[in-house]
Every structure is written in C-alpha cells, then in structure tokens.
Write a structure and sequence with these properties.
About 40% of the residues lie in helices and about 5% in strands. It has helices at about 20-25, 40-55, 65-80, 105-110, and strands spanning about 85-90, 95-100. It is globular and about 45 Å long. It starts with 18 loop residues before the first helix and ends in an 11-residue tail after the last helix.
C-alpha cells in the first residue's frame, strides 16, 4: 500500500479509517464492488466506524493498531452488506460459506468487546 492508502493515513475528519484505505485493504475495484452507488455506501460505513471509534469508544485515532482495526472493521461491515444472515452463497462448489458476525482480531486491535479493559462507567 502507498502512503495515501495505508491504514496510517486517517481520513480528512481525523477518523482512523478512510475510504481510500478500505478500498486498498479490501482490494475493491471501481467497476466491481463499488459499482452502482456502492461507493456512497462505503463512505457511510467508514463514517460510522470512525464515529464509533472516536465518539463511542473514545480511542486514539493516531495509534496504528486503532487505524488498522478501523480499516478492517469498515471493510468487513461493507462486505457483510452483501451477506444476508451471515451466509455468503456461491463460494464455487455451491455450498454456503459462513461469515463471522464478530471479529476477534478487530476486537483485539481496537480493545473492544471481550478485549476491552475493565472500566467504571
């Protein structure tokens, strides 16, 4: 990845993920997964992930693990838009492929869910 598309390049709003970084990470093609208005959907997913990371979870967007975790989370949420009920049909042999609804690796990077540090509310 180049400097402009690396997870270490936060978006213009200061969020840890950018649409460009998600496109590079997920290897999305302009004529494929981003056709027919899907680019706007990806922009919304990236904005939602950045809002969660910054506003709800209050994570430091300058940390590389947070940047990578946010990019991975946005890419996976975008991909799940094409997988109703967590099942992706058509993996080549006709059998369904399960898509996880939780991401332990992303939780580890972001320190959320089961990987969150104990804290008082």
């Amino acid at each position: 990845m180049t400097e402009a598309t690396s997870p270490a390049s936060p978006d213009a709003t200061g969020g840890p993920a950018s649409t460009t970084a998600v496109i590079a990470w997920a290897k999305l093609e302009a004529g494929g997964a981003l056709a027919g208005g899907r680019r706007q959907a990806l922009d919304l997913v990236v904005a939602a992930v950045n809002a969660l990371v910054l506003d709800r979870w209050r994570l430091d967007a300058t940390k590389p693990n947070v940047q990578l975790g946010a990019v991975m989370l946005a890419a996976r949420w975008f991909a799940r838009g094409d997988t109703p009920a967590g099942v992706l049909m058509g993996n080549g042999d006709g059998s369904p492929t399960y898509v996880r609804t939780t991401d332990p690796d992303v939780a580890e990077l972001l320190g959320i869910g089961a990987r969150a540090k104990p804290a008082l509310a």
